[in-house]
Amino acid sequence: MTEWLVVAPERPDDETLAVTAWIARETAARAATAPVVLAGRAAVRSVFEQRLAERADLAGLAFFGHGGEDRLFDADRPAGADAPALLDRDNVGRLRGFWVHAFACSSGKQLATHAVEQGVTIYVGYERPLDAGWDCPPSAAPELVALVTSTTFALLEGERDERSLRARASRAADDFFWALEALPDDQRTGGWIWLHALAQQLVDSMIVARR
């Protein structure tokens, strides 16, 4: 196991960040090795870089929040804006030797490649936007958390094989799908169909970049 960092920006005006921050908290609580946590309005670039400088023992990053093709956004970014970034090609080299899992939209397109070029050991992200902003009915929530954490925990345990990572995510996605299907009609909220989509996205749009 490695020392690792969970980063989960959150703003009171952003419902998606409320969901991703909840998953981050559940991830930290379930982990065999407790992470260092940078969350809420403190999850901004300056504090992130300071934390990296202070903790030379860190070797992994799990990010939960908004992303773009070449960046992960911090807590100061207003909804819909393209800045500021917590992580981009200008500072991703600070993660040399790290594993990274970014539960965020689109960073698998460019940032994953930039990260590996600058020394990140493996970067798992997604090439498409994720439907992550929907509240999950409580009876299916454990399976949603297990789906997201399947990749994070595999990396934490030392897994680096793309087929194995995708297979673990696929099994967890199936479990989440069936948990959603088992919900009674009165719990099939407006986001029910989009939660199905999210389960598929976390498998089909997974990008694994590695050295």
General description of the model:
With about 210 residues, the protein is α/β, with parallel strands linked by helices. It has one domain (about 5-210): Rossmann fold (3-Layer(aba) Sandwich), CATH 3.40.50. The protein has six helices and nine strands; from the N terminus they run βαβαβββββαβαααβ. The chain has helices spanning about 15-30, 45-55, 110-115, 140-155, 160-180, 190-205; strands spanning about 5-10, 35-40, 60-65, 65-70, 70-75, 85-90, 100-105, 120-125, 205-210. The strands form two sheets. It has a six-stranded mixed β-sheet with strand order 2-1-3-7-8-9, sandwiched between helices. It has a three-stranded antiparallel β-sheet with strand order 4-5-6. α4 runs antiparallel to α5 (about 160-180) and α5 runs antiparallel to α6 (about 190-205). The longest helix is centred in the last third of the chain and has 20 residues, at about 160-180. It is globular. The protein starts with a strand and ends with a strand. The mean pLDDT is about 95.
